[in-house]
Amino acid sequence: MNRTCDLCLRRAALYPLSYGRSENPDDIRGRRAATQGAPHFPLTRNRKVTYRLRMDAVFRALADPTRRSLLDELFREDGQTLSALEGRFSMTRIGVMKHLRVLEEAGLVVTKRRGREKLHFLNPVPIRLVHDRWVSKYTEPWAAGLVGLKHELERTMEKVYEIYIRTSPELVWQAITDPEIRAKYNFGAAVVSDWQPGSRLEMGAPAAGGPLGEGEVLEADPPRRLVHTLTALWSDEVKAEGSSRVTWEIVPVGDDSICLTVTHDQLREGANDQLYGGWPMILSGLKTWLETGQLLTTPGSLLYVD
Predict the structure, then answer these.
(1) What's the rounded mean pLDDT across residues 200-219?
(2) Mean pLDDT of the chain
(3) What's the topology of domain 156-302?
(4) Which of 198, 209, 232, 236 has the most CB atoms within 10 Å of its CB?
(5) What is the 3-state secondary structure (H, E, C) of the chain?
């Protein structure tokens, strides 16, 4: 048996539903091209041996976090080109191609040609075979219930806010990181840190009677991007919510303006709205201060002002 036939038979074992029907010759040639250089798994008459070899390839493919992320992207949007997938990862085109090849060899990704484009599709059949091997029909309802509970407990929420300000990126960065300026639009609360990755930050105000928040700087790229965690401490209710993440992104617009995007994520689904409900007022106060030098005087914005 030649190598090409051997590969075709192995794929037939992985995709029993796709063989035995008429296919576009271009699709067949594309699939054969994609499997050139694939490791040779000799077929035997022993079903257990062949099954084990297929299963080993699946586990090897799933062991890499980048390849799992590729599968996540295809689950989110199936039928993507190499260029589309490459744009979502900070690696070279060749690196993405190598990971896709491993996934194809394991049968987790299949490709089809549409004109001049090669599209990649998630094939869940090998994963289902893994599931069927160790999850019986009697234990499946219990396992599904526990997985559902895990997803419910781990489900997170994301809030995104965007505002345009007539100022420079440098002045916005200063307004975010300077504690005296920050207090002018942040309900009177200053945030103190040296703003180096790994450093601690503390939020407080003399009138608060105690710390209002704490966190850790995760990324700092002045004057473009700042990422930090935040644990609110101003009440027992918000303290119980634990840590979340705040990302500040500053993008120049034209000659004299910027677009500021604040993303508050890793929030528990249904989290206390005190954690994120103040962002519109904070950003409005920031815009007012940078453009006019005046303080926002709405009652909420003066919460911790002496």
Answers:
(1) 94
(2) 81
(3) Alpha-D-Glucose-1,6-Bisphosphate; Chain A, domain 4 (3.30.530)
(4) 232
(5) CCHHHHHHHHHHHHCCCCCCCCCCHHHHHHHHHHCCCCCCCCCCCCHHHHHHHHHHHHHHHHCCHHHHHHHHHHHHCCCECHHHHHCCCCCCHHHHHHHHHHHHHCCCEEEEEECCEEEEEECCHHHHHHHHHHCCCCCHHHHHHHHHHHHHHHCEEEEEEEEEECCCHHHHHHHHHCHHHHHHHCCCCEEECCCCCCCEEEEECHHHCCCCEEEEEEEEECCCEEEEEEEECCCHHHHCCCEEEEEEEEEEECCCEEEEEEEEEEEECCCCCCCCCCHHHHHHHHHHHHHHCCCCCCHHHHCCCC
Per-domain residue ranges for the chain?
Answer: 3-152, 156-302
pLDDT of residue 18: 38
| pLDDT digit string, tens, across residues 87-113 | 988 889 999 999 999 998 888 888 888
Q: What is the pTM of this model?
A: 0.53
The predicted-structure confidence for 17-65, as pLDDT tens digits, reads as follows: 333 334 454 544 454 444 444 444 444 444 444 445 567 888 999 999 9
Question: How far is the C-alpha of 291 from the C-alpha of 255, rounded, in Å?
Answer: 15
Same CATH topology for 3-152 and 156-302? Answer: no
Question: Is residue 12's pLDDT more than 70?
Answer: no
Q: Report the CATH fold assignment for 3-152.
A: Arc Repressor Mutant, subunit A (1.10.10)
Cis? peptide before 223, omega within 30° of 0: yes
pLDDT digits 0-9 by tens, 259-293: 999 999 999 888 999 998 888 889 988 999 999 99
Beta carbons of 110 and 125 less than 8 angstroms apart:
no
